[in-house]
Amino acid sequence: MRKLKIAGTGSCLPERVLTNFDLEKMVDTSDEWITSRTGIKERRIANDGTATSDLVIVAAERALEAAGMEPEELDAMIVATVTPDMFYPSTACCVQKQLTQKKIPVFDLSAACSGFLYGLEVANGLIASGSCKNVLLAGAEMMSKVVNWEDRNTCVLFGDGAGAVVVSPTDGDHGIYASCWGADGSIGELLMQPAGGTRMPPTHETIDKKLHTVHMKGNEVFKHAVRAMGDAATHVLRKAGLSGEDVDFFIPHQANRRIIEATCRRAKVPLEKTVITIDKYGNVPAATIPIALDEVVREEKLKRGDIVLMASFGGGFTWAAAVLKW
User: Fold this and answer.
1) Which residue among the candidates 20, 124, 134, 283 is catalytic per the annotation?
2) Of 12, 94, 113, 180, which residue is the catalytic one?
3) Counting CB atoms within 10 angstroms of each CB, which of 8, 85, 149, 168 has the fewest?
4) pLDDT averaged over the chain?
5) Number of CB atoms found within 10 A of residue 114's CB
6) Any catalytic annotation for residue 134?
7) Selected catalytic residue, list 94, 155, 253, 264
8) Assigned domain for 283 exists
9) Is residue 281, in this structure, part of any structural domain at all?
10) Is residue 113 among the annotated active site residues?
């Protein structure tokens, strides 16, 4: 069975920076409060008129350039997001319209913060089966459009951005060694955007009550997140015959620095091997992992043969992890 390798990475972050000090002027909060509880100092916010697909296109073009490929060489495209341009057509179709004339299968995937690693699992299956050779996978979010900017408990957490990878088959000793994914829908109400779908269609009342924005029970989310992400990371390391000490780079989902630190302890991965970007970008749900991966690649920190561990958790609840040899 052919393994999947990451042939190229790319990312796109809006230019506008919103700092904690900016937020002090908007809601009843402080830089000290946000930093001590989340580790976030600033986040990126897209301009009005910018859509999720706009960020994906830039990230995708950069990933293709890094892979030395043209868009016409792609066999499929997956966009992981919970903030699509619209319900349909898919954000992936919006990207395809601008990126390539090739009539390849493209689709969106919704698994919240686990979306990118869910997409990696799907892409791995497409490549392993021989159905596809080159797959573009993107994680992208426009959270500034769906947060309640009057709710200090949630608006301080999120940012906008996109990350993308081109994945291809490899017969060598590098590529994905082990992966896992899972979900528990029984606790989905802990983190949700209640209105806008068929359960609660848009009305003046739902808009007035801000039910189209993020609602979260933070303390409960924290406990489930640490357990799910830590156990997923431990599981894939065990499947690959590795330990936390064998990891060269750990790229966790960036939701909260305290969650990241607790996950490292649970999975026995040294914190100094962990890539942390939450201070700069906040939580960009499906995009945090590919953005962080692209950053370490472009800073030339990753070298051939390095062991990379990735783990995530998200609304649903969902979780996933993967370990690969670079």
Assistant:
1) 283
2) 113
3) 149
4) 97
5) 34
6) no
7) 253
8) no
9) no
10) yes
